[in-house]
Amino acid sequence: MKNSKYYFLQIIFIVLISTLSFSCTKETQENSQWKEAIVKNDGSPSVDGCGWVVIVQDTLYEPKTLIDSIFRFDSLEILLKYNLTGNHGFNCWGQLPQIDIKDIKKR
Fold first, then answer.
1. Which of 10, 50, 62, 105 is deepest in the core (most CB within 10 A)?
2. CA-wise closest residue to 41 among 22, 62, 25
3. Cα–Cα distance list, 37 to 12, 14, 76, 102, 107 (Å)
4. Residues whose CB falls within 8 Å of the CB of residue 101, separated by 6 or more in sequence, listed in order
5. Could you tell me if residue 74 is inside a domain?
6. What CATH number has the domain bearing residue 66?
7. Are 19 and 64 in contact (CB under 8 A)?
8. 37: helix, coil or strand?
């Protein structure tokens, strides 16, 4: 009887640890291929704008890090490699998915 109770507690402990470890991992999605994108200045966040955003396939994204100044031109066409962070940015009331830019170049 003691062995079955001990075995049951071990199973519960393993399931609990497995569930917690999977729920704590941050979900990311990698894009290893170049994607066509457009850099857009959506207005200053201090006056309800979204700041510099990137448009990929009709979806607006907020870059995790500031876009280098050589790419800060409104409607600039670029090629981009990025990862989705699984988070939302701070501008635009947290509505835009956030990306981590891995590589960027002009088209």
1. 62
2. 62
3. 48, 45, 8, 14, 9
4. 54, 63, 64, 65, 67, 80, 81, 82
5. yes
6. 2.40.50
7. no
8. strand
> Which residues, 6 or more positions from 22, have their beta carbon under 8 angstroms from its beta carbon?
none
Supply φ then ψ for residue 90, to 5 degrees.
-90, -30
> Does pTM surpass 0.90?
no
Structure tokens at 22: 């999977």
Domain encompassing residue 57: 29-106
In whole angstroms, give the CA distance from residue 9 to residue 20.
Answer: 16
Sequence-ordered alpha helix ranges (H) in the chain: 2-23
- pLDDT 10s digits, 3-49: 676 666 667 666 656 554 544 444 455 667 899 999 999 988 888 88
